């Protein structure tokens, strides 16, 4: 009787249903199938009038693969898949009656070492909410309302467009303290986040990784469900709703993407079929000593298909406008985080990971071929050349790159007591020497406000007034400097506490005028940056920037010009990094006429003392700084001025 029951259960799996063609398998094995999510994983469908779910999983070294779940009381034996042909390594089968929302895992028995494991589906569209670990059958049907955005997003995502990015960790942006500090759902957060970002004038939101991750404290960077948004905040459709609402309000969405490593949880990718399938076998290439996580085998063609399919999945199905690729440096260097003798040189004896380089080039090529109106962004912390240059000229093909050098120098400089800044003046000026080598984003990210690094305002020297003035000065310098802008949540209103992922931002401090004033400063900077082409059109091109004077190290003052494509659009930006106001400070300018003081960080509305130039000043024909005209200005203490030329006299 027992044998008969098992036989009947096995009849429940049909092997005459498939979504895979021979061409699919060929492209997958070749490393050039970039829409695998249509074929592998679980897909609820109806065939021959029978409703059910088709399963397909790559496990070439498995002896047996079966599907278990609530539908069969998690029986590891009853619903076996069948390997597809010879050499494909793909197991498939159709289980009638299995509907949307069913939880399941694959039970795999390896050919080697008697290895057995219950694995989540690498291609699952949804996973159970942590700490549960099963995958779920799920459809991704959603009625999008962002058609207008999708038609014109090429304009919003162009290299010459303004990018003022608000970086958000969704689980700690805002919580509900009255309900045991619970997360807001994707849908709940939509109304708050959309209104706030729109009011503040940010152009894009960048989410820390939203893919399913077992350890919440990893902030999403230990991804396990690459094709599934985390269920902590709701369903896939709930996330689509959030993105849809942002788009309908002309706000772009950038998603952190992590192809650099994955965690060692047994139900994940690691040792998937009893062999090192997704990762390298040798820990000198396949394991991160710093992060205690595994490294993808970028040279394996099937892994390349998996990762690039995943990138395109988020762009295709979730309408994502950009992918920020995490930890690119760790991919490019074989000795990243390793000591001598702990890494394996490449075929030429060098430390460059040629397999990862090829993967990144192919990734960027595939993304821009499929979606020329999006951007890929590299978090690359070294001086690797031409990260954001086209592949055909020898670059990696990214659209933009985080400027980690600017971030480090700017924060190190601004954290010093003003008395000592004159001895470190080159930290302000050095970034311009390389500012146009890459398409840089100036980032003040989450990494700078945690693990004992203090909040941004906490890094500032001086008393409370000086801290706020220094913070406003830092933001003004950032928005004047060439490059796109990124600010992590909380920084825009001067949060005092370091970021804590288990708690909400300190929204309560906005009851105090001093924090409202910082928030208003950032809002006005965003508005100016968006509306003035001179401040964003040529962010990545040398003609958009010109020094007026970078020699005044004794006064810790810098002044420069920003311009757009139109010769009429010229801004003068001047920063005073000392707490001493400068009266009758002369600055050479390229034309006469009236120069309007558009923004002044020392204005009383921002919590300043009110030093300034009465809204503007007329140029005088007094040569200075090698120019025929000049301005005699009052420079506010720890302040930045933005002056716009309104005259046409040359």
Explain how this protein is built.
The protein is of the alpha/beta class. It contains 17 helices and 31 strands. Strand 6 and strand 7 (116-119) form a beta hairpin. An 8-stranded parallel barrel has the order 10-13-16-19-20-21-22-23, surrounded by 4 helices. Strands 24-25-26-31-28-29 form a 6-stranded antiparallel β-sheet. Strands 3, 6, 7, 8 and 9 form a 5-stranded antiparallel β-sheet that branches. The protein is elongated and about 90 Å long. Among the domains are: 2-136, Sandwich (Immunoglobulin-like), CATH 2.60.40.10; 543-645, Immunoglobulin-like (Sandwich).
Helix-strand blueprint:
Layout (H helix, E strand, L loop, with lengths): L1 H9 L11 H9 L10 E7 L2 E9 L3 E8 L12 E2 L6 E7 L6 E8 L5 E4 L6 E2 L7 E2 L10 H10 L7 E5 L1 H4 L1 E2 L5 E2 L2 H15 L3 E4 L3 E2 L12 E5 L6 H13 L3 E6 L25 H4 E2 L4 E2 L6 H17 L4 E4 L2 H5 L21 H17 L4 E4 L21 E3 L1 H11 L3 H4 L4 H4 L1 H4 L5 E5 L11 H4 L4 H17 L3 E5 L24 H19 L13 E5 L7 E7 L6 E7 L5 E8 L4 E7 L15 E3 L10 E7 L3 E7 L5
Parallel strand pairs: 10-13, 10-23, 13-16, 16-19, 19-20, 20-21, 21-22, 22-23
Antiparallel strand pairs: 1-2, 2-5, 3-6, 4-5, 6-7, 6-9, 8-9, 11-12, 14-15, 17-18, 24-25, 25-26, 26-31, 27-30, 28-29, 28-31
Helix pairs in contact: 2-8, 5-6, 8-10, 16-17
């Amino acid at each position: 009787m027992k044998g008969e029951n098992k036989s009947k259960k096995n009849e429940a799996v049909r092997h005459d249903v498939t979504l895979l063609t021979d061409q699919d398998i060929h492209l997958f094995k070749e490393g050039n199938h970039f829409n695998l999510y249509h074929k592998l994983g679980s897909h609820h469908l109806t065939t021959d009038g029978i409703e059910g779910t088709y399963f397909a999983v790559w496990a070439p070294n498995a002896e047996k693969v079966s599907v278990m779940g609530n539908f069969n009381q998690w029986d590891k034996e009853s619903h076996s898949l069948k390997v597809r042909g010879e050499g494909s390594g793909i197991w498939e089968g159709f289980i009638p009656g299995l509907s949307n929302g069913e939880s399941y895992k694959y039970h795999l028995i390896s050919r080697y070492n008697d290895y057995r494991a219950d694995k989540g589906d690498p291609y699952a569209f949804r996973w159970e909410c942590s700490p549960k670990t099963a995958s779920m059958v799920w459809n991704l049907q959603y009625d999008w309302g962002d058609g207008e955005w999708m038609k014109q997003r090429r304009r919003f995502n162009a290299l010459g467009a303004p990018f003022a990015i608000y970086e958000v960790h969704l689980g700690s942006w805002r919580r509900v303290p009255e309900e045991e500090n619970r997360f807001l759902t994707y849908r709940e957060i939509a109304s708050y986040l959309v209104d706030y970002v729109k009011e503040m004038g940010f152009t894009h939101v960048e989410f820390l990784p939203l893919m399913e991750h077992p350890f919440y404290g990893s902030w999403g960077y230990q991804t396990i469900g690459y094709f599934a948004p985390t269920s902590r905040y709701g369903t896939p459709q709930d996330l689509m709703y959030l993105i849809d609402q942002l788009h309908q309000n002309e706000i772009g969405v950038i998603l952190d993407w992590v192809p650099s490593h994955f965690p060692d949880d047994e139900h994940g990718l690691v040792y998937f079929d009893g062999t090192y399938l997704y990762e390298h076998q040798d820990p000198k290439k396949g394991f991160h000593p710093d992060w205690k996580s595994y490294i993808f085998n970028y040279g394996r063609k099937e892994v390349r298909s998996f990762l690039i399919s995943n990138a395109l999945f988020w762009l295709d199905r979730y309408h994502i406008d950009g992918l920020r690729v995490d930890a690119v440096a760790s991919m490019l260097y074989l000795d990243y985080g390793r000591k001598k003798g702990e890494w394996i040189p490449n075929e030429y004896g060098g430390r460059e990971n040629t397999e990862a380089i090829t993967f990144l080039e192919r990734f960027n090529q595939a993304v821009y071929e499929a979606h020329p109106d999006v951007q890929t962004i590299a978090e690359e912390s070294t001086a690797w050349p031409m990260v954001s240059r086209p592949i055909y000229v020898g670059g990696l093909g990214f659209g933009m790159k985080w400027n980690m050098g600017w971030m480090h120098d700017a924060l190190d400089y601004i954290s010093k007591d003003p008395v000592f800044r004159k001895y470190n003046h080159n930290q302000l000026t050095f970034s311009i020497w390389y500012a146009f080598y890459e398409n840089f984003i100036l980032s003040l990210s989450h990494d700078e406000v945690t693990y004992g690094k203090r909040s941004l305002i906490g890094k500032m020297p001086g008393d409370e007034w000086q801290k706020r003035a220094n913070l406003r000065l830092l933001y003004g310098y950032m928005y004047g400097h060439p490059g796109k802008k990124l600010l992590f949540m909380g920084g825009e209103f001067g949060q005092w506490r370091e970021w804590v992922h288990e708690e909400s931002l300190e929204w309560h401090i906005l009851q105090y005028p001093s924090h409202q004033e910082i928030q208003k400063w950032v809002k006005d900077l965003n508005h100016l940056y968006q509306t003035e082409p001179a401040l964003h059109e040529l962010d990545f091109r040398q003609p958009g920037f010109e020094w007026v004077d970078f020699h005044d190290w004794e006064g810790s003052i810098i002044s420069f010009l920003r311009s757009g494509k139109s010769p009429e659009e010229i801004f003068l930006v001047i920063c005073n990094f000392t707490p001493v106001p400068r009266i009758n400070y002369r600055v050479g300018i390229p034309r006469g006429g009236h120069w309007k003081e558009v923004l002044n960080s020392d204005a009383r509305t921002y919590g300043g003392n009110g030093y300034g130039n009465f809204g503007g000043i007329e140029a005088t024909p007094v040569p200075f700084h090698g120019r025929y005209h000049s301005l005699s200005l009052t420079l506010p203490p720890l302040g930045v001025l933005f002056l716009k030329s309104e005259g046409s006299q040359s």
